[in-house]
Design goal:
The chain is an all-alpha fold and about 100 residues long. It has five helices and no strands. Helix 1 crosses helix 3.
Length: about 100
């Protein structure tokens, strides 16, 4: 390249996949985050009652649940739907303070 030539610029990347998704409540959340938050909120027992799948019922763990949910679209959809419904109500209802804490 000589001094009079300008360097070629790289083509601009297609940014269509990075646009904001304001109507998608799962945008930016990984499956691991979703399952972790549901586990923290409900625990494995209640998750198994709400979504009766083996990865929540028998010897549940985050790793086994993620493995199963990544391979099973129908189960993943149920977990994502539960997360959407639950997250809309988180924080709306506060538990009453116990009387022992006030003493």
């Amino acid at each position: 390249m000589t001094k009079t030539q300008t360097p070629k610029t790289a083509p601009k990347p297609d940014l269509a996949h990075t646009k904001k998704q304001p109507n998608n409540p799962l945008h930016g959340l990984s499956l691991k985050e979703i399952v972790s938050q549901l586990h923290a909120h409900y625990g494995w027992e209640e998750l198994a009652e709400r979504i009766p799948i083996r990865c929540f019922q028998y010897d549940p763990s985050l790793k086994s649940s993620l493995t199963f949910l990544r391979k099973t679209p129908w189960a993943r959809e149920k977990v994502e739907q539960l997360y959407i419904e639950a997250s809309q109500n988180w924080g709306k209802y506060k538990r009453p303070a116990s009387t022992e804490a006030k003493k």
